[in-house]
Write a structure and sequence with these properties.
Membrane topology: Multi-pass membrane protein
Largest sheet: 6 strands, mixed
CATH topology of the largest domain: Growth Hormone, Chain: A
CATH superfamily of the largest domain: MFS general substrate transporter like domains
Helix content: 55-70%
CATH class of the largest domain: Mainly Alpha
Subcellular location: Cell membrane
Keywords: Membrane, Transmembrane, Transmembrane helix, Transport
Pfam families: CarboxypepD_reg, MFS_1
Structural class: alpha+beta
Number of strands: 19
Number of helices: 21
Radius of gyration: 29 Å
GO cellular component, one term: plasma membrane
Length: 663
């Protein structure tokens, strides 16, 4: 058996090795974001370019990372998570080698673009941990993998500062390539491929439109302070991003195998988690920017601490270490408190810590403690984010959903840089012939970050709790009873014998003892995929708007099997119009909402029958009129989620049979 095959179901004794391998890969990917920060002031001299052009060494990495994350994450769900991790690492290594050997600025920017693709590795790694680890280790593994974004970014500053100072700028990329190659070998040998895949047609057009929209928005945000926020290029980029998103949203709602399942993303738990993630990521990145800037400002300013670049970078190490140390406890906290309370507590710690930094930022020790406290809250938040996401999406979509969450964090990071630059540039004082930020600028940023994280607490508290009493969140993320990696069963749902098309259709699967297993949203052709914890008997429930649900028991387990679900009974308001007991054909029947709004009208058939698709729940008025006799009658009905029958007699104005509900 090959090592990779043997690793497909890691034994408990090897679980720690798998977690360590993926976490090292995540830290290395996150490190690429801050790798060139210490050498950024020297880039114009190294390559003979302007200062504005030199910033592309950072900007291009942000852009490619943001674009690659949702695309690679979606491809991971379709083609294999381990495969995409290997692909992103190979791309990052090639970028590092290109930079290490480059003397051309164009090649250097290309290398940085390739390095940025590695950002997609983190959400894919989180998803493969969920698929491959024992349920009792999922919380710890996901907490550590999620925190690697902050750990790698914090560690990147001191590491790159030391390498650049002692060995030159080429050493940054030789080391990155060498470490990347070593971690890649570990991934190939130790990490197994997840069996949870949902093959389909890749939404190339959706990916291109989304990439263009993200590039326009993030480029405008990144360059706004340099080019001018009201300059024509920035305004055009913002307009382009809005127009492209207005095209992308309706397209994604119509296409099968969409790039992003917008209906799932719009579910309250997922949407609110992503909103909170933007605010928390903004505060996390500002923490690093504020801390390093405050430490490096000359002491003569009255509030700077006068450290060298390398020393300021080393001062960020405790912030990264506290995220590492806290990760083993984050999983326990998650299972004890739940995802919502854990993230709310982390955001609250960040908010209070930022307020405390206002009076306690006068020496290096105070600054390090303040930064570390913010890092502590960040670690709790980052541990909870992916668990909340994965508990609310189908198992077959965990990588894509985590990818969108990582994209939200990237947007928060890009926004933080823009806000940081705007505030510090607007509040300056002259020192040594240069303009430097005032103490008030730092205090204002502390307050803004405290407010942002306080808002994140409120947003997090609105996330609905759906974990049963006494149930651990890891048990909701990983179905109880899983004896090995899940097997995926695919099927087709038909509504009245046809594909759902634009009708929202859902398939849910539970075990016969009532334990929830998975759910899926059908595509426009009715296809669905669900992941099962093992072979056995399951209850499959199909449901679609306007149709009666259908349940069936089935023995499932073979990943190639197809399980079909058919919905045959349309939910309607229906009945018969009579005149003295005689059916009236061609009578007009109108349906109005109780508030008077017109819903629709139909004509009765030769047997006097009429039918309306069941409208949203609420009070309605059904009116029947015979144009030949000028007789008319109206009745009030209350629509629920059940099929309704209302018969009307034009002669007596009485209902022949009381309005009844047909189940």
């Amino acid at each position: 058996m090959s090592p990779s095959a043997e690793a497909s179901e890691p034994a408990a004794s090897r679980t720690g090795v798998v977690i360590l391998t993926l976490s090292l890969a995540g830290m290395l990917a996150a490190l690429q974001q801050t790798l060139v920060v210490p050498m950024l002031p020297e880039v114009p001299g190294i390559f003979g370019v302007s200062t504005d052009s030199g910033t592309w060494m950072v900007t291009v990495t942000l852009l490619t990372g943001a674009v690659a994350t949702p695309i690679v994450s979606r491809m991971a769900d379709m083609y294999g998570k381990r495969r995409m991790i290997i692909w992103t690492m190979v791309t990052m290594i090639l970028g590092s080698l290109l930079l290490a050997l480059s003397t051309s600025f164009a090649l250097a920017v290309t290398g940085r673009a390739l390095q940025g693709v590695a950002s997609a590795l983190i959400p894919v790694g989180i998803s493969i941990m969920r698929d491959e680890l024992p349920s009792e280790r999922v919380g710890f593994g996901v907490a550590l993998m999620s925190a690697t974004l902050g750990i790698g970014s914090a560690m990147g500053l001191p590491l790159s500062g030391v390498l650049y100072k002692h060995f030159g700028w080429h050493s940054l990329f030789w080391v990155s390539a060498a470490v990347g190659a070593a971690v890649l070998v570990c991934v190939v040998l130790l990490v197994g491929e997840s069996k949870v895949k949902t093959p389909g047609r890749f939404d190339l057009l959706g990916a291109l439109i989304l990439s263009a929209a993200l590039t326009s928005f993030l480029l405008a945000v990144s360059k706004g302070s340099t080019w001018g926020w009201i300059s024509l290029p920035v305004l055009l980029l913002f307009v382009a991003s809005v127009v492209l998103m207005m095209i992308w949203f309706p397209y994604e709602l119509r296409v099968s195998d969409a790039m992003v399942d917008l209906r799932t993303t719009a579910r309250r738990p997922v949407l609110l988690t992503n909103v909170a993630s933007v605010l928390i990521a903004l505060a996390m990145y500002v923490n690093m920017l504020l801390t390093v800037t405050l430490l490096e400002l000359p002491r003569g300013t009255g509030h700077g601490l006068g450290l060298e670049v390398s020393a300021a970078g080393l001062a960020m190490v405790p912030t990264g270490l506290i995220m590492v140390v806290l990760s083993p406890f984050s999983g326990m906290i998650l299972n004890k408190w739940g995802g919502r309370l854990t993230m709310a507590a982390g955001a609250a710690i960040m908010s209070v810590s930022y307020l405390l930094r206002i009076p306690f930022s006068h020496d290096v020790t105070q600054v390090i403690i303040g930064s570390s406290l913010v890092g502590l809250g960040t670690a709790l938040c980052f541990a909870a984010m992916p668990m909340l996401i994965m508990a609310s999406v189908p198992i077959t979509e965990t990588a894509a959903a985590n990818g969108i969450n990582s994209l939200m964090r990237a947007i928060g990071g890009a926004t933080s840089s823009a806000v940081f630059a705007a505030v510090l540039a607007s509040m300056t004082v002259s020192f040594g012939g240069e303009n430097v930020p005032t103490r008030g600028a730092f205090d204002l940023m502390f307050v803004l970050c405290s407010v942002a994280t306080a808002v994140a607490v409120g947003v997090t508290w609105l996330i609905p709790v759906r974990v049963r009493e006494g149930q651990r969140i890891s048990d909701k993320v990983v179905p109880p009873g899983r004896t090995s990696a899940e097997t995926v069963v695919r099927g087709i749902l038909r509504i009245g014998g046809e594909a759902p098309r634009q009708t929202a259709a859902i398939v849910t699967v539970t075990q016969v003892d009532g334990t929830p297993v998975d759910w899926a949203r059908c595509d426009q052709e009715g296809g669905y995929s669900v992941a099962l914890p093992g072979p056995g008997r399951y209850v499959i429930v199909g449901n679609a708007r306007g149709w009666a649900p259908h349940a069936q028991c089935a023995d499932l387990g073979d990943g190639t099997a197809l399980e079909h679900v058919s919905l045959t009974q349309e939910l309607t308001i229906a009945g018969t119009v009579t005149n003295g007991g005689v059916p009236v054909s061609e009578a007009m029947v109108a349906l109005h909402h109780g508030a008077g709004d017109f819903v629709g009208s139909v004509k009765t058939d030769w047997q006097g029958r009429y039918r309306f698709p069941l409208p949203p729940a609420g009070p309605y008025v059904v009116t029947a009129a015979d144009p030949n006799t000028s007789l008319a009658v109206s009745r009030k009905v209350t629509a629920t989620a059940e099929r309704m029958v209302t018969d009307l007699d034009l002669t007596t104005g009485r209902v022949n049979r009381p309005a009844r509900v047909v189940k």
